[in-house]
Amino acid sequence: MRIRTVLVVLPLLALAACGSTPVVASSADSTSQASASNQSGPTGEGSASAPAAVVADPTAPVNGPETPAATVANADIPAAEMPSVTGKFGELPTVTFPSTPAPPKLNIQTLSQGNGPAVATGDVLVVNYYGVVWGGTTPFDTSFAAGKTPFDFTIGKGSVVKGWDTGLLGVAEGSRVLLTLSPSDGYGTAGRAPTILGTDTLVFVVDVIAALSANKMGQADAAVQTPPAGLPTVEGALGAFPTVTVPAGTAEPAGIVTTILAKGTGAPLVAGDAFLQFASYGYDGKKAGTTWENGGPQKITLGGIPELQSLLGIPVGSRIMLQIPATPEIPASASAAAVPANPASIFVMDVVYQAPAAK
């Protein structure tokens, strides 16, 4: 796949389309749930590799009462009336339920306090989670299962169940929290057959691994490098939005050219999911698109995209420039649609985070 297929709209999209899976918006509406994707996370039907699901009692009522979703997470339920959780941050939790009934509203309990920034609307969250129906013994979904990677989503945008969008706001990065969701805060009055009824209270243990703000940058104190002569000029302080100037006579690249502009002190990038900010310019000096103004850090899966192999080994926190040569049109074939020609382009990227590998 080419690195750029929609450059004129937002150059990132072509990169993301090569290696990442989109998050499907969740809804209490059963029709929306029926069309959700198989991505792991509290958004759709769950992954085929998820643990065995809790089987719903066919004699129990399916639909729950019509009540509005919570606008704030409560923390007023006595600890004795909340599930008890064992296991440290990053470990598979064990959930034990009390004999008391489930709370009637969205509740949160901090199990271990992190020291990172507080989660705010629009942040990209990277989390591990364990979900179980109140009183159940088997999770209906979890990212702690073997082969699973942490789940990522943008909070406050309706891409997850309402109880997550509301309940995780204000949680410090690095925290483990316990959430109890009434049906209206989960999958609504219809539930999510066959594992979740419309009367079920959902319980989630969530580890907030990372909270990446929309304006997250690379390191402001990254070590500035001296680029070779004859390249486009990148201006803007580290930790701020970059701008690109293309001096007259600058030659377009014949192949992909990767230049480290400032070297961070984080771990070297490896194959897997990385989060980067982008700004893209043409060789006419015009800005084509930027993630800083459109959505914040974006996930790119490294290791499977030949055009991005040069990013492997670059430390997290770095700012880099990636020059992409022009590509000719590829005519349609019996098995593929035509791919239009693309002009040469310049990407300035801040490497802001790399997600943990699959277990």
TrEMBL record:
Pfam family for this entry, one: FKBP_C
Domain of life: Bacteria
InterPro entries reported for this sequence: FKBP2/11, PPIase_dom_sf, PPIase_FKBP_dom
Sequence ranges of Low complexity compositional bias: 28-40, 48-62
Isomerase found in the keyword field: yes
EC number: 5.2.1.8
PROSITE patterns xref list: FKBP_PPIASE, PROKAR_LIPOPROTEIN
Keyword terms, alphabetized: Isomerase, Rotamase, Signal
Catalysed reactions listed for this entry: [protein]-peptidylproline (omega=180) = [protein]-peptidylproline (omega=0)
Protein name: peptidylprolyl isomerase
Organism: Nakamurella antarctica
